[in-house]
Specification:
The protein is globular. By secondary structure, it is mainly alpha-helical. Helix 2 (about 20-40) crosses helix 4 (about 65-85). The strands form 2 sheets. Strands 1-2 form a two-stranded antiparallel sheet. The protein has helices at about 1-15, 20-40, 50-60, 65-85, 90-105, 120-130, 135-150, 155, 205-210, 235-245, 255-270, 275-280, and strands at about 180, 190, 220-225, 230.
Length: about 280
């Protein structure tokens, strides 16, 4: 019996590493929402959670938020069950409830499509930042690589210094450029292709300028002063480039805007779609 308990604990311990820390934090908030719902309705909580209760939890938010938000709530509950070694009882009924919740999503709960980062906006970024400043050089190199590599910001930059890992983010040694982790391939990683571009929007030239500054393990590391090297974080990147565009009266943009903008720009440059597909992985 002791052996079984030990093995079960081992499985649970390993299973918890199936999700990124940021994902687990988000799931914890969704589990807390479920627990609060049960508490306010005097419903006892136990694992495994019966399907009818999961359906009621999903249905009670219909029309008040987006279908994807409710689906993420359910995904958090599912992960909670997996992490605790409990079977998941969600089935056909839950599938139809989620489908109906999505149909009942109000227009006010729908986000507008992400705008594009265009080559003109990228040129504005280059003309507004000073590449002799290590932080600016790092931001420009990162922006060019994400744009032409059709990448996602979270594949290039960590959310904090402690979150950096060579298993998740590109390093100086992976200048081909190797992404150790992506949204699609996960831990298998993928290579992105960066070619020379005419004018100032050349990712290769931007990287060379960036590398004039001292570098460490992370590909996008810069000199923060006092001999300190730090990784460029998502928040810092967004702050720098949005401050440029806000000054020019342009709307704030998210990291997703680079990926769709780079794909559009390549197609407008008459790059064959099958080549764009390969570059965009």
């Amino acid at each position: 019996m002791d052996s079984f308990v030990a093995l079960h604990a081992l499985v649970n311990s390993v299973t918890r590493h199936a999700w990124k820390l940021k994902t687990l934090e988000g799931y914890q908030g969704r589990v807390n929402r479920f627990l609060s719902f049960c508490l306010s309705n005097n419903i006892p909580v136990s694992l495994p959670t019966p399907e009818w209760l999961i359906c009621v939890f999903a249905a009670h938010r219909a029309g008040t938020c987006s279908g994807s938000s409710v689906a993420n709530d359910v995904a958090g509950l599912w992960a909670w069950h997996i992490a605790n070694g409990s079977p998941w009882l969600g089935g056909t009924c839950l599938k139809y409830v989620l489908r109906l919740v999505a149909r009942l999503t109000s227009d006010s709960s729908k986000r507008p499509p992400h705008p594009l980062v265009t080559s003109e906006l990228l040129k504005l970024l280059h003309s507004s930042l000073d590449a002799s400043i290590p932080l600016h050089a790092c931001v420009l190199a990162c922006a060019d690589c994400i744009f032409w590599g059709q990448g996602h910001l979270g594949e290039f930059l960590p959310t904090s210094q402690s979150c950096f890992s060579a298993k998740l983010f590109p390093t100086v040694n992976s200048l081909i450029c190797r992404l150790p982790w992506t949204k699609v391939s996960k831990e298998k990683g993928e290579d992105i292709f960066l070619g020379h571009q005419l004018g100032c929007l050349d990712s290769i030239a931007s990287l060379l300028v960036h590398f004039l500054s001292p570098s460490s393990s992370h590909l996008f590391t810069y000199h923060a002063g006092g001999g300190k090297l730090v990784s460029l974080m998502k928040r810092k990147f967004l702050l720098v480039y949005n401050s440029v565009w806000s000054t020019c009266g342009l709307p704030r943009l998210s990291g997703h805007c680079f990926c769709i903008g780079g794909t559009t720009e390549l197609l407008l440059c008459n790059v064959p779609p099958h080549i764009v597909k390969v570059i965009g992985r």
